[in-house]
Design goal:
Layout: E1 2-5, E2 9-16, E3 19-23, E4 33-34, E5 36-40, E6 43-46, H1 47-56, E7 61-63, H2 76-84, E8 89-92, E9 99-102, E10 108-109, H3 111-130, E11 136-141, H4 147-159, E12 163-169, H5 170-180, E13 191-198, E14 203-217, E15 220-235, H6 240-257, H7 269-285, E16 291-300, E17 303-310, H8 311-317, H9 319-322, H10 327-336, E18 345-349, H11 356-366, E19 371-372, H12 380-392, E20 402-406, E21 411-421, E22 424-435, E23 440-441, E24 443-449, E25 457-462, H13 470-476, E26 480-487, H14 489-494, E27 501-511, E28 517-530, H15 534-552, H16 569-580, H17 602-612, E29 617-624, E30 626-631, H18 639-680, H19 683-688, H20 691-710, H21 717-767, H22 775-799, H23 808-813
Parallel strand pairs: 1-11, 11-12, 13-18, 15-20, 18-19
Antiparallel strand pairs: 1-2, 2-3, 2-4, 5-6, 5-7, 8-9, 9-10, 13-14, 14-15, 16-17, 20-23, 21-22, 21-25, 24-27, 25-26, 26-30, 27-28, 28-29
Helix pairs in contact: 3-4, 5-12, 6-7, 15-16, 15-17, 18-20, 18-21, 20-21, 21-22
GO molecular function: adenyl-nucleotide exchange factor activity; ATP binding; ATP-dependent protein folding chaperone; oxidoreductase activity
Region (Disordered): 548-611
Organism: Ixodes scapularis
């Protein structure tokens, strides 16, 4: 499955065996679901139901919290959030320093926990659509998310009980969806496409290059398409939400100017939520119409709001926002080092690109470039992520399409070392870039620290961020990612100190498919001189002894065999000792032995000696180094906190399931009572029941109806099931009689048909006069047919006399 996770909406897509990528519908049969969750009176509500709750009780419905992932309470992004949504109560997590939402009923939730519940709901939607449990997922992520934000999103996925296959950039997912259906159009010449995505919360421009590359898949070399992200530009706070809030604030001011209420609407959370909801509707209408009327009933104190507004007024109200529309395009061109002339096509994505003024600003910035609108702006990312999920999953086989994302923020390693300048020792700070801006990933890198022989530490930080504005840097958070402390360096080197040459301390880093940086391992590397294996050395020296023996023996003597006593042991030991001491020797290819009958000359013997002596082998040896990594950008939750969060979400889910089971049991009982009451007054059931039986059943049904209305508010699921079971037993005999009466005509017709067929068959075999069947067999069959026919006639005759509340057997006995 995949989840296209946006600020306001999410789309869930699935891939099933034999079924192409498709969008999973929610419980309201909608293709997209609001990213919102509400808690009211002990119940959880998701999607549209949560939004409805938010209009009446805005402080109990949480939404638009994606930007708070990985943020500390004092981050300016949190301040922006509070300004946008003044009805929320935010607190600082005392253990992690992160953000907590305080619910009016006393509960607190972190953004990761809220998002975990949303993703768990998405998992249920996907499982329902697929008809089987789903646990593997690719989740889209804003390209501008830093390491702390990506880790927080990965934790939320884990809290939802999902296995994260990949965090895929939202525009990258769109680009993959675009490329999958056009793979035949690409060749080894790059095709550059700019994807411009203006969603609810942010705007991102991404340049993607498509071309075919040579790839080795499962041992076979083939040419496959590949997309590579060349550059990314973004505006974190430019999106449909900002337009909506700007318009909503205008409506609130206009309402306050009416002066018909005792309090200002800005002090009324419910009234403000109603005006913001209307602002969102009006914003969408003005994209297709030049004027409209905003209308809200009972904003507060029974005062309605009605106000006309034109598209021109809306554009003037948001003029400063529209001036920022072209910003991401300029930034992505600067990031990629490309010009507009190198862009082959521009594709628009995201619902806010439908605003006419946005398209005008884009067209002005892109000059003669046509604005492509061929993609489904709402679902392209979800479907592209679903394709990637199928590719990464072991259960599906899809055509290869390589995806290479770009690192937005450079990452460097900082460490200190001592330097000696004219006898004066000082400490020098050294910075080494690990992953540059726009480095493609996934990618592994090794950094070598060559001058350390004792324990030390280094820092992992963000590199040069001069391309970001001062305001963006303030929103970014900590520029320090982590510190790494190494221990046991000296001990590791001592293990190989004799005859070994240190080659430094190597740290192995990985920027994985999700853009998450990990330090896989640290090791001390030395080079050791290793002698050849003992068997090879003995064999070589034995042959050397044979060669020397041939030099001083007659041609009639048999040379000593390899490993025999004739091999000079002294020479063997000296050679082994020389190799152990690390003396340099030459490596030659060992030749085959010469003619045994002819002794070798001195020159030939010397050549043979040189051939048999091998160079000592230099082997790199790695010794693991213990390291401790401490995160600095955002304190991660402890294992106890994670366990507590998992339990909190599990308890809420169990409570939801228990409530759902109770609701089903109540509805089943209520439906049974109403349907059975209707049946008791139908002609069919009145004929089947005696008057006494009917009165008894109706009385029991009335008791059940009164219990449902007056006594069932606090009843458990079992009580509803027990009531239903008791009523079912009471009406069972009646229902069986009605069912028997319904089925009897069909059964009698089948009996008649069987008898008619049997009589025809009997006539046929009687004509054969005993050729196949004996007289006894024919007589037995005729007797059975006649007896059955008598029973049939009796049943038909008694059919008119049978009253439905009596059984057939009772009727026959009379």
């Amino acid at each position: 499955m995949s989840v296209d996770l946006g600020t306001e909406w999410m789309k869930v897509a699935i891939v099933s065996p034999g079924v192409p990528m498709e969008i999973a519908l929610n419980k309201d049969s909608q293709r997209k679901t609001p990213v919102a969750i509400a808690f009211r009176e002990g119940e959880r509500h998701f999607g549209d139901q949560a939004i409805s709750t938010g209009v009446r009780f805005p402080e109990k419905s949480f939404s638009h919290f994606l930007d708070l992932l990985g943020k500390t309470r004092d981050n300016p992004v949190v301040k922006v959030f509070e300004r946008r949504f003044p009805f929320y109560t935010l607190e600082a997590d005392p253990q992690t320093g992160g953000v907590l939402f305080r619910h009016p009923e006393g509960m607190t939730f972190s953004p990761e926990e809220l998002l975990g519940m949303i993703l768990s709901y998405a998992k249920d939607l996907a499982s329902t659509a697929a008809g089987q449990p789903i646990k593997d997922a690719v989740v889209t992520v804003p390209a501008y998310f830093n390491q702390a934000e990506r880790r927080a999103l990965a934790r939320a996925v884990s809290l939802a009980g999902l296995k994260l296959l990949q965090l895929l950039g939202d525009n990258t997912a769109v680009a993959l969806n675009y490329g999958v259906f056009r793979r035949k159009e690409f060749n080894d010449t790059p095709t550059n496409i700019l994807f411009y995505d203006m969603g609810t919360g942010s705007t991102t421009a991404t340049i993607v290059s498509y071309q075919t590359v040579k790839s080795k898949e499962k041992g076979l070399s083939e040419t496959v398409p590949q997309l590579s992200v060349k550059g990314i530009g973004y505006d974190r706070f430019l999106g449909g939400l900002e337009f909506k809030l700007r318009l909503g604030e205008r409506f609130a001011k206009d309402f306050s100017a009416m002066k018909k209420t005792s309090k200002d609407v800005f002090e009324n959370k419910r009234g403000l939520a109603k005006l913001y909801k209307e602002a969102d509707r009006v914003k969408k209408v003005l994209s297709a119409n030049t004027e409209h009327v905003a209308q809200v009933e009972n904003v507060m104190e029974d005062v309605d709001f009605k106000h006309p507004i034109t598209r021109t007024e809306f554009e003037e109200l948001c003029s400063d926002l529209f001036s920022r529309v072209a910003g991401p395009i300029h930034r992505v061109l600067e990031s990629s080092g490309m010009t507009l002339d190198e862009i082959d096509q521009v594709i628009l994505v995201g619902g806010s690109t439908r605003i006419p003024r946005v398209q005008q600003e884009l067209q002005a910035a892109l000059k003669d470039k046509e604005l492509g609108k061929s993609l489904n702006a709402d679902e392209a990312a979800a479907l592209g992520a679903a394709y990637q999920a199928a590719y990464l999953s072991k259960g599906f086989k899809v055509k290869v399409f390589h995806v290479k994302e770009a690192n937005v923020f450079p990452i460097q390693v900082d460490f200190s070392r001592e330097v000696d300048t004219d006898g004066v020792k000082s400490t020098k700070l050294v910075r080494r870039v690990l992953f540059y801006r726009n480095n493609l990933y996934p990618q592994k890198k090794v950094m070598t620290f060559s001058r350390y022989t004792t324990d030390f530490e280094f820092s992992i930080n963000y590199g040069d961020l001069s391309f970001m504005s001062k305001e963006e840097l303030s929103h970014f958070g900590s520029l320090n990612i982590s510190t790494v402390s190494l221990s046991g360096v000296a001990d590791a080197l001592k293990k190989h100190s004799e005859g070994a040459e240190p080659k430094g301390i190597k740290a192995h880093f990985k920027l994985d498919e999700s853009g998450l940086l990990t330090l896989d391992s640290v090791s001390a590397t030395v080079e050791e001189v290793v002698p050849p294996p003992t068997e090879n050395l003995a064999s070589t020296l034995s042959r050397l002894g044979s060669t020397l023996g041939n030099l001083f023996s007659s041609g009639s003597e048999e040379p000593p065999k390899a490993g025999s006593e004739g091999a000079p042991k002294e020479n063997q030991e000296s050679k082994a000792e020389a190799r152990a001491d690390g003396e340099k020797t030459e490596t030659e290819t060992e030749g085959k032995s010469g003619n045994k009958e002819e002794p070798k000359t001195d020159k030939e013997g010397a050549a043979a000696t040189n051939e048999t002596v091998k160079t000592l082998k230099v082997v790199p040896v790695k010794e693991p180094i213990n390291f401790e990594l401490k995160l600095l950008d955002r304190t991660p939750p402890t294992s106890e906190q994670i366990a507590e969060s998992i339990k909190k979400l599990s308890d809420l889910e169990s409570k939801d399931k228990a409530k759902l089971a109770r609701d089903h049991a109540r509805n089943a009982l209520e439906s049974f009572v109403l349907e059975t009451k209707d049946k008791m007054y139908s002609e069919e059931y009145e004929r089947a029941a005696s008057e006494e039986e009917k009165q008894n059943i109706v009385a029991k049904l009335n008791e059940g109806s009164e219990w449902l209305e007056y006594e069932s508010d606090n009843a458990e699921t079992k009580a509803f099931k027990d009531k239903l079971s008791g009523l079912t037993r009471i009406v069972k005999d009646l229902f069986d009689r009605v069912q028997e009466h319904r089925e009897r005509p069909q059964a009698l017709a089948a009996l008649t048909g069987m008898l008619n067929t049997s009589e025809v068959y009997l006539t046929a075999i009687q004509a054969l006069k005993g050729e196949i069947f004996t007289e006894v067999e024919i007589t037995t069959l005729a007797k059975a047919i006649n007896e059955t026919r008598v029973v049939e006639i009796c049943i038909y005759k008694s059919e008119r006399k049978i009253t439905l509340h009596c059984s057939v057997l009772a009727s026959r006995s009379t």
